[in-house]
Amino acid sequence: MRTKMVGAIAVVGAALALSACGSADPAPAPSAKADQFAPAAQDEAGEITVWADATRVPVVKAYQKAHPEAKIKLVTYSGNANGATDLQTKVQLFDRTGNGWPDVAFSATLSDTAWAAFGDKPYAAPVDKVIDKSVLDGFAPGALDPCKVGAGTYCVRNDLAQVVLWYNKKLLDKFGYTLPTTWEEYQALGEKVAKEHPGYLVGTAGDPWAPEIYLWASQCPASTVTEAKNVTVDLKNANCSRMVGMLDKLIANKAMSKAGVFDAGFIKNQASKVLLMPGPSWFGQVLFNSTFKIPKGEIAAGAPLKFASDTATYTGNVGGGVWYISSHSKNLKTAGDLVSWVTTADEAQANAVTYPAYTKAAALWLTKQRDSGYFAADISPAFTQAAEQVWPGWSATQYSQEAIYASTVVPALNKDQTIASTIDAWQTAITNKATSLGYKVN
Amino acid sequence: MATASAPARQATGVRGHRKPNRSGYFFVAGYVVLLIAFGIGPTLYAFWLSISNSRGQLVGLGNFTRTFTDYRFAAAFTHIMVYVVIWLVTLMVLVVSLALMLHGRMHRTSAALRFLFYLPGALAGVASVVLWLILLDPTNSPVGFILRAFGWDSLATVILPSHLPVIFTIIAFWTGAGGWIIVVYGALNSIPPELVEAARVDGASIFQIARMIQIPLLRKWIAYMLILAFATGTQLFVEPQLVSTASFGMIPDGWSPNQLSYLYAFQAGDFNGAAALAVDLLFIGLASATVVVFRGGLFERE
Amino acid sequence: MVALNTRPSDTFPSDTSQSGSHLGRRTPRRRWSTGAIAGRVTWFVVTGVFLLFFALPVVWMLLAVTKTDSQIIRGHPFAIGTWHDFTQAWGNLLNFQDGAILLWMKNSAVYAFGSLAITLATAIPAGYGLALTEFVGRKLLLTTTLVVMIMPAAALVLPLYLEVNAVHLTGTIWSVILPLSFYPFGVYLTYIYYSSTIPPDLLAAARLDGCSEWQVFTKIALPLARPIIALVSFFSFVGNWNNFFLPFVMLPDSQQYPAQVGLSNLLAASAVFNTSAGTENQILRPELALAALLTILPVLVVFLFSQRALLSGMLAGGTKG
């Protein structure tokens, strides 16, 4: 009886091994062609389904209040935050059955465009065909870059997370230091702090987004998409090694912590010892105020740093959300109207939790921040400057740089290795992940 | 349908010479409908997915060879094999021992203890992320003193790759053991107390009673537990996903084969590769199930 | 039957110390020999260690809901908080999307009890049929059930979704209730229970007495099934209550979310896990712990109910030697 079973299995196995009518390789998804966009039959009075995360629900409700004639069905979901892939998972299933796509969807993951604008019938509609060009031109330069594929723009940026140089003005004045303007000065200051005031920090390297703060600002080509799904990954480039070298030195003399800023241990023991911290614009309220509970009047933001040999200043970006309009939507007019309103209207963005990507709304947002009186000095110059200096060469890929850094480099750091020693493994990890998602790596 | 009222000649009381009757079909009918709709149907579709490509063409073993050469495949299966060994031994030994210990005397204490042992099992994956985020962080964890005694002073040092199989075993045991203790405890209740009493009177020690009476009579339950524990062990998903979320991604998202299958399906959009990996896991589970079924006599009846 | 080794108990420590004599004693008297004390102490130590292992984290959670987030991070793990902080956490949680957590729990109850009803109606008779009746295909059914149980769920998501969509049930509660009521684990538990506790002679006698098959089931097997019904109900309810992936995939409307899906959204909206969530909704560690505890409450209640049925039924079991 058992030998018969084994025999049957062997025969089936052999048959399978021999039969192959098609190729097992998954078909590569072609990128969307904006000029081939053909909207579905439109109904301008129809109901639209909007998927938003909990933080964006109030602003969608505000739109409904301001436009009572619009019929909106609001669904709350995770917003794809913290590595979740809810939107992608659901859209895959909807694609298979041919119905169910939300007309408008918010996503906290910039890299969603890397799948949403690809495929035979991509989910994302080219927003430049739905929203006025004049509106799209009002966004900060580079804000819409993660949304661009080929000639089209496939999402609208909700907020920016430009990296600025946060510092504790009170401590800085107390120690008698001046704020650095170049990375060389930053490193020198770090070494000084390690000698004169050990225990105080100028940065952290254990956060998953550390590459986006440091390597992005250094213009390191960790993942530069050249077209569609071709990507360049070169961690051995001089731009990368100069920053890695600096980080390793600062970690070695303990001016830079190996922990992450949201680690419970860091919050408990080292939050009050942060002297300098290059970080995104949302650090101000979320990290320093709510989490670290640094008192009023101590924290301020300086302009991003540059390397002395560079001609222009570039900075990084850690996050930001985007709004998608479904290419299958039956009411593109209302969908487009909603998306432009929530990203540009003063009402929607002035009290937002993060820096608006739309320039005019950003100016109003900065006034409100100034009025709140939390910061030691006006953060507007640093924020507005940094908003225009985000380096365009760090692409939003379908794979997460943060996840790769967190699982490859951070464990090595915690085994007391240097970042430089992990470069090979790190590069291989990025290349492997990229290839597994259909990218061609050079 | 139920047979008419002339059953006297249909069934006999002699063991092993039961004549088949049609009432059996009636009893299993409802379940069989659900089985076909939600069990067999989707499983067959998954099999089909594993041997075809996204355009519907047959590709034989192509998906299997393709996923086998994936750079994460070897690592994932190694991880899981190490984990399963630790997990199975821990689970079987501790669950049976604890159930036996609780079954001895002191019924009210035993009930309270069973409840407390079960408590963690009620905390399903999502609900326990908060808990494990704190538990694994030596600075303010309730078990911080244990972690610090090992020399680990931060979350990152606790979840280094080499520690993971043990950590996941602890988490999985913490959530899963309670339920199995209840099952085995319930099974122990079905052993006639006279047997145990007679043995005790004859001077057998509790170890002997356990070894020679209780465990052999629990053979089927233990076999069932072994099959399921092996299958859930090889299909580990929740625990690595949980620690990955709680630690902002410090462990790779394809640590276990089941996670890898999930990535294939929902990140790469490759349902065929995902199905191939699922079938791999299925065959591994079935292989062990076959061994246990035949040696444990799960399908036999007294 | 298993042969009993009637050896004197002097080789191993024993509860009832009967050094040597094993004739005629029906009620062993307890003497506190060192062996017995050692045994007792070991029992207490071992159960104590495991009690701490299982219960300590839950105790932490219970205390956490009475503290502020800052105290949880900076203070001692087992410090007790204040009633004020507890009401604060409670208020923050209820504020989240206007009491969404209560809606989620109501949805979970509907799905869990709905599937439980169908599960009991199908699994108990099926287990009985597999154990105590004979029909062609019995072993096939057992094997198929086992195979399907071992199949990883991730691969079944797509086919299930396509199936439910094909009968136009997506978005309705049936898209969750029906797949959840398929519970092979329960069928196997019932099968094992019936095949190991009810002797076929009992049924044969009933049949000889003129009972139809249905009567045999309802008059003999079903009354004896109280413990297994309790067990299967319990596990089915808990499995349904804790299921995340099926409702996540099937339900497009956030008003229909069960507790598990709702909780994952709560987590994603919390500043603890999501750095872009902002600081308005005040869902931090105490609120998350409270939400987690709330969602396990029904499970614990069901546990207590079913344990009583389980125990009482077992003791009244009609097993004959």
Q: Any overview of this molecule?
A:
The complex is a heterotrimer of chains A (442), B (302) and C (321). Chain A is an alpha/beta fold and 442 residues long. Chain A folds into two domains: 160 residues, D-Maltodextrin-Binding Protein, domain 2, CATH 3.40.190; 215 residues, Periplasmic binding protein-like II (D-Maltodextrin-Binding Protein, domain 2), CATH 3.40.190. In chain A, 39% of the residues lie in helices and 12% in strands. Chain A contains 17 helices and 15 strands. Chain A has a five-stranded mixed β-sheet, with helices on one face. The longest helix of chain A has 17 residues. The termini of chain A are far apart. In chain A, 53% of the residues are buried. Chain B has 302 residues and is mainly alpha-helical. Chain B has a domain of 200 residues: MetI-like (MetI-like fold, Orthogonal Bundle). Chain B is built from 14 helices and no strands. Chain C is mostly helical. Chain C folds into two domains: 53 residues, no CATH class; 216 residues, MetI-like fold (Orthogonal Bundle), CATH 1.10.3720.10. Chain C is 66% helix and 0% strand. Chain C is built from 14 helices and no strands. In chain C, helix 4 crosses helix 11. The radius of gyration of chain C is 26 Å and the shape is flat. At the B-C interface, helix 1, helix 3, helix 4, helix 5 and helix 8 of B face helix 1, helix 2, helix 4, helix 5 and helix 6 of C.
Strands, helices and their partners?
The complex is a heterotrimer of chains A (442), B (302) and C (321).
Chain A: H1 2-18, E1 48-52, H2 57-66, E2 72-76, H3 86-97, E3 104-107, H4 113-116, H5 133-137, E4 148-149, E5 152-153, E6 156-157, E7 163-168, H6 169-175, H7 183-196, E8 203-204, H8 210-217, E9 224-227, E10 230-232, H9 238-252, E11 256-257, H10 264-269, E12 276-280, H11 283-291, E13 299-302, E14 322-325, H12 332-344, H13 346-349, H14 359-372, H15 380-387, H16 401-413, H17 423-436, E15 440-441
Helix pairs in contact in A: 16-17
Chain B: H1 23-50, H2 62-68, H3 73-103, H4 107-118, H5 125-135, H6 144-149, H7 155-158, H8 164-189, H9 193-201, H10 206-217, H11 219-234, H12 238-246, H13 257-266, H14 271-296
Helix pairs in contact in B: 1-14, 2-14, 3-8, 3-11, 4-8, 5-12, 9-10, 11-14, 13-14
Chain C: H1 34-64, H2 69-74, H3 83-95, H4 100-132, H5 138-150, H6 157-166, H7 174-181, H8 184-197, H9 200-208, H10 213-221, H11 226-242, H12 245-250, H13 259-269, H14 285-315
